[in-house]
Design goal:
seven-stranded mixed sheet, 3 domains, three-stranded mixed sheet, about 30% helix, Rossmann fold, about 400 residues, DNA Methylase, Chain A, domain 2
Length: about 400
């Protein structure tokens, strides 16, 4: 197991996925009481594998990392995204909720082998490009701190000069980032997130992001070429849509062998769950019907046979369109908490204990569990490969002596 420290853990999606991959968190830090209480409730309910999780409700700005020892191998987390979210106020470095400076401090003080951070795609917006570069340079050189009275632009200049200089640079990380779509990794949701991964420079990690495993093209093939999608869901031929004219030639030329796995859809995700208005719905936790779903301009709900729209928390409550389901008869209804949790690939046994709005907020802010697991597995695989190579080099050296 890789001993880690998670900041801004929220509902626990990133932590669950990384734990499945082989990360063991020394602590999960989060300021929001409801989120902490929810994870603790799942610990109390004996959800598998998290009995020893240490959930700490705190402001990370007050944390002394020396209290957790110096054997933390990875720092992980999702710094609050509101400063960069398309639905937020877009203040970035002028927003007091920007917690990237605290992520950098954790790396500086714990000196881990590496880190995994994630955030919304708004972080890559053109207007934030200089500040995003500033974040990456701070993570690359966490010991290069701003002098007293120095603003972030001045600190950025200092970091750029340091980054392009020669000589021993002390604590340094090789940092890469990528905008990933969770749907490309088997998550039943179109969710674009920026993943930032760094390895301490002395490790010579040679790591890259895992290759996508699922594709839109494979889903199109399964629907309109071999009918495997409809047959798998036992959809009668008369209810299947016709092949769109624009796709006919592309489908005929498609080679299934090179398309990979198909994107997962809303229908895939909610398979096995009854209609929340039915008498059997109460047998499933967090599967209560909520009335009042209405369409409005630009918000028409997710369709059954495509990945869901991005599940969102919303700056002022849950937005309508993203968290609604468009049914085959043309009607709309809200996702239940359990359905939304499935879109985020939370296990069914992982429960949400707050109101619908609060639960949807926590789910909407979470990292898809499956995406976290895949990235975590890739990181651990590289660590293990590096450990084996180092052991072989040492053994070869001893034999030479």
């Amino acid at each position: 197991m890789v001993r880690s420290m998670e900041l801004f853990c929220g509902a626990g999606g990133l932590a669950l996925g990384l734990h499945q991959a082989g990360f063991l968190p020394a602590a999960l830090l989060e300021w929001d009481k409801d989120s902490c209480d929810n994870i603790k409730a799942n610990i109390g309910n004996k959800f598998s594998g998290i009995a020893n999780w240490n959930v700490v409700q705190t402001d990370v700005r007050l944390v002394r990392y020396s209290d957790y020892g110096l054997d933390i191998q990875f720092v992980t987390g999702g710094p609050p995204c509101q400063p960069f979210s398309l639905g937020g106020r877009h203040k970035a470095h002028n927003d007091t909720r920007d917690m990237f400076p605290e992520a950098v401090r954790a790396v500086r003080e714990l000196r881990p082998r590496g880190f995994i951070f994630e955030n919304v795609k708004g972080l890559l917006r053109k207007s934030f490009s200089s500040y995003f570069n500033y974040i990456l340079l701070q993570l690359s050189h966490p010991e290069v701190m701003a002098h007293s009275g120095m603003d972030w632009i001045e600190h950025l200049k200092l970091l750029e000069e340091y980054h392009t200089s020669s000589g021993d640079k002390g604590l340094e990380y090789n940092v890469v980032f990528r905008l990933v779509n969770a749907a490309d990794y088997g998550v039943p949701q179109q969710r674009h997130r920026v993943a930032i991964v760094g390895f301490r420079s002395d490790l010579d990690a040679h790591w890259s992001f895992p290759k996508p495993t699922h594709s839109k093209e494979a889903l199109t093939f399964a629907k309109f070429k071999d009918d495997s999608y409809w047959e798998g869901h036992r959809i009668a031929k008369k209810k299947r849509p016709e092949v769109p004219a624009a796709l006919k030639r592309a489908i005929q030329l498609a080679d299934k062998e090179v398309l990979g796995e198909r994107w997962q859809t809303v229908r895939d995700a909610i398979s096995g769950l009854p209609d929340p208005r039915s008498s059997t719905a109460s047998k499933f936790a967090n599967h209560e019907f909520r009335d009042g779903a209405r369409p409005y301009a630009g918000h028409s709900g997710s369709v059954l046979d495509e990945p869901s729209k991005t599940i969102k928390a919303g700056a002022h409550g849950v937005p309508g369109g993203e968290n609604m389901l468009a049914l085959e008869d043309g009607s709309l209804r809200y996702y239940t908490v359990r359905e939304s949790a499935r879109m985020q690939t939370f296990p069914d046994g992982y429960l949400f204990h707050g109101s619908w709005t609060e639960s949807m907020r926590q789910i909407g802010n979470a990292v898809p569990v499956k995406l976290a697991r895949i990235i975590g597995e890739s990181v651990i695989e590289q660590i293990e490969r590096k450990n084996v190579n180092d052991a072989e080099r040492r053994q070869t050296g001893l034999q030479a002596v």
